[in-house]
Every structure is written in structure tokens, then in C-alpha cells.
Amino acid sequence: SIGRVLSFVFHRMFIQVCLYFYCKFLWRCLKFVMRKLTGRCELQRICYSTKPGASRTMKIETSLRDSKSKLWQFLKPNTPLESRISKQWCEIGFQGDDPKTDFRGMGLLGLYNLQYFAERDATAAQQVLSDSLHPKCRYSFAIVGINITDLAYNLLISGALKTHFYNIAPEAPTLSHFQQTFCYLMHEFHKFWIEEDPMDIMEFNRVREKFRKRIIKQLQNPDMALCPHFAASEGLINM
């Protein structure tokens, strides 16, 4: 029994050593050979072989990160999507540096998002509001708006929205892109709520979590963009 355990441990160690050797030496040798054969560095090969959008951008990120390039160290602290957008939080009432712990700010952002939704697509917003007042699928329009704002923010911070933003705004995502994304999520959640046909508002957390998982699964596709279905997001796609 002890011999089997030791054999298993040594086997695992051998595999780890081999992987380390591959990552440290063979992979670099392969990249060197590829550069000599193609006359292009890895970044050039990625750009030539991968179409613009999230696939290309994330491959470039991985290449720079794995190579520990000085360029990656220069870009990393300055270009994350959440950093670009978070600079604009103060314009809409957030206090402090962390919106997720600022309940007043999150509520205020939710109301601004709902206002944006109503102004950019009054017809869709009025329909959603009207449906939310119906006895069969009743929910608080404002509270759901704040919850969907929180969902959108957490998708942003977790990096799940990278795919979406890299596909729709390769130049630099802004707060407007975030608000347009909120419009899409609000509209889709409303449809999802009706499809789920909950017994009452007490099922909100269950439906919200199921909706969150569906969106995350969609965003795992590198070609995914949360395509608009209504006027509030007509300018969302910017390929």
C-alpha cells in the first residue's frame, strides 16, 4: 500500500517536472522555430491568423502575460476594463473607490441606468414597466433595475464581460457601453422572468441566479456580443 502511494507521488512529481520543462524550455524553442519559419513573432502570428475581436485580444493578453513582457507590465495597471469605467463612477454619485460596497452609489447607478433605458428606448421601457405591474409577473421595476445593475457590475469586475466589450468596443469601453449593456440585460431578464413563470417575487433570487449563469455561459464564447434587440442599444455593436 505504501509502495503504491509512493509510486503515485513520484509519478505525479515526474509529470510536473516534465510540464515545467516543457513550459520553460520546449515552448520557447517552439516559438523560436516558428519565428524563423514564418518570419513573424508570436504577436504578429496571432494578429494575422485571428480575426479582430475578443479572440484576438485575449490571445494577445495571454501571450504578453506568459512571456512576462515589459509591455504587459506597462499595460496591465492602466488598461483593465473595470479601471477605465470605474474612473467615471464618481460622476454619478459613488463615494469611495469600491462601488460594490457603496450601496448608495449602486442604487443611484441603478436609477441612472433605468433613466438611460427610458430615454433611449421609451417604448421598450414602458412595456417592461407595464408588465412588471401585472399581477401574474409583478416585481419592483426600480429594485430589479438596481439588481441588474449589480449583476452587470459583477460581470464586469469578474472579467466575464471582457468577451462582450472586446467585441463591441475595441477602442476603449466607456460608461455608455456599460449602460447599454445594462439595457440589454434588463430587457433579457424581463423576458426570462416571464418565461420562468415564478409563483411570486420570493423566487427572484433563484431566477436571477439562473439568469446570471446563462449570461456567463453565453460570454464564454469568444465571438459573443450581447446583441441588442431594441433601440437603446442600436449603437452597441461597433465592429
Q: In terms of per-residue confidence, which ranges show pLDDT below 50 for 5 or more consecutive residues?
A: 229-239
Total DSSP helices: 11
How helical, in percent, are the residues?
A: 55-70%
Estimated radius of gyration: 23 Å
- As an assembly, this protein is single chain
Approximate shape: flat
Protein name: ELMO domain-containing protein 1
GO molecular function, one term: GTPase activator activity
Structural features, described:
- Helix 8 crosses helix 10 (175-196).
- The model is unreliable at 229-239 (pLDDT under 50).
- The chain has two domains: 1-38; 41-47 and 57-233, no CATH class.
- The longest helix has 37 residues, at 2-38.
- With 239 residues, it is an all-alpha fold.
- The protein has helices at 2-38, 42-49, 54-66, 70-75, 81-86, 103-120, 122-132, 141-158, 162-168, 175-196, 204-219.
- Residues 63-219 form the ELMO domain.
- This is ELMO domain-containing protein 1.
- GO terms for molecular function: GTPase activator activity.
- It comes from Fukomys damarensis (Damaraland mole rat).
- It holds the Pfam family ELMO_CED12.
